[in-house]
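Task 17 of the worksheet. Students: predict the tertiary structure of the chain below and write it out as structure tokens. Keep your answer in the requested format; marks are given for formatting as well as content.
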Amino acid sequence: MASATLLRRYFAGRAPQCEIDDLVQDVFVRLHSARPGAPILDLHAYLLTIARHVLVSRHRGRAARCTALHDPIDVVLDPATEISPERIVAARQDCARAMAAVDDLPPRARAAFELHRFEYLTYAAIATRMNITRDSVKELLRRATVRVGQSRHEYLNTYPPYRQSGASIRMGGRRSTKPAQQAPFNQG
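Model answer:
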């Protein structure tokens, strides 16, 4: 305990107050891992030597990382990570819009989309179940994805904060700020 007090006094004028406990701990870690070749005659002098080396190491590390050039990060909760009642309602509405867009798909496209997205079937498994080719499944899913993405894009363009910011959204494998061209759909 007396050694910790000695080290705290040593670091008090040489390091920021918020780092003193970490520095003291670093000294004791180094003391514990040290394997001196001869017995330690003066423990306090040995500790202060280790403390000086810890300060030099910390200074060199900061210089190597250019910490003087870094801006401090204020601890602020990111509003995007907070689950507020408004976010819950918005997510439910977004989900309802997406499900309505899926329900509005032509029957074969909806079936392929549901099998792929909700039952996690592969293109080959969907082709077998629907008795169509893999290429047909691929085309049905592409068209369905474009339609569902388009309904989301149309909503975002009518929602003022998104429309004003020109935010880009992901649609059908590419980033876009314009609605994707809708491929003609065969109802069959």
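Marker's comment: The first strand starts at residue 169 and ends at 171. The domain at 86-176 is CATH 1.10.10.10 (Arc Repressor Mutant, subunit A).
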